[in-house]
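Repro:
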Amino acid sequence: MVTVLIAGGGTGGHVFPMIAVGDAVRAAAPDARVVYVGTARGIEVRVMGERGDSLELLNVLPLRGGGLSGFVRGAARAGRVLPEARRLVERLDARVVLSLGGYAGGPVSLAARSLGVPVAILEPNSVLGLSNRLLSPLVDRAYVAFPEATRALRPSSVRLFGVPLRRAFARAPYAPREGKLSLLVLGGSQGALALNDILPRAIAQTAQTAQGRERGVDLDVVHQTGRDREAAVRSLYAELGLAERARVVPFIDDVAEALAAADVVIARAGASTLAELCAVGRPSILIPYPFAADDHQLKNAQSLERASAAVAIAQADATEARLAGEIARLAAAPALRARMADAAAALATPDAAARVAADLLELARAPRHRALRFPTGGRAARADEAPRRAAMRGAAPSGAALGQEEAG
């Protein structure tokens, strides 16, 4: 039996590609064992717990989001957890490790490399994340979705496969309607405070414009707010006279179905969100999260805009008037929306998960590398077991301590 270790987690943008690859590994090799590694801070505890997946937790901290002192604390914790990560790789007899970045990816990948186990990274964004950037000289494979991400990687390691998605995301026919527009607002699995505040007002302004009345634009909205935020957003839609037009929900379980029902999607620009948009084939207005590492969401959004699949608007420019104007423009141009939907679908990589899985299994069957010298730990490593066990007993609530980054 081959054991594939998939490490990462934190936000939906990491967790759902992990699951997609894991499912594809099991589909390609039913006797393979897939084990995920994350932390108690991310949504993997809830999502993988509900699925019954095998999940190991490491007590590590983020490297970004806390300034220099936060980086130092995160690096020190990663160093202390390395012996534990090494024991985990040995105990599970992992034959290959895939890292999607996040808190756990770095220590598990370094531990695997020290044992001679092949290591791969998956970078769904157009800019390499910090963990993947640091690991890149050591990896056998680098699976990427954007050509821009290849610049910092060893050419022989690169595989341009796209973002792995769950099977539910598939092309859905797009039939633009004259005079009616269904909007889907997504802010990632945590929601997005800025979108929650500005979009109800922009949508209200669209509904009240003279153009809207003349053309008889009939708007309806599905707005995902993030958990514990729906009451305030629902109240705002009611205050703006849109209570009957807006369905406000904290979380959408079947995102694929929601995308297929939408005429236009308004969203952040995390790589997984964009991959899902392209897989289903929907036009979008993208408002990138401005504090994403290395501004990667803006670069993601601009990549789709260059392909005529989306409108990209920096959050600083996303005023009520600007957003209302873009919504009205798309509402009045069904042919344009159809072309945008086709352009998005042309960027889709529906077989990404299967291709990553097949390549991982090939790596798993390859001879191991020569093991590197590595300290086995001792008192400090054993002391770190206590917080790990505590974390596994009482996981933090979904999305807690994610720092600045929003999910998705």
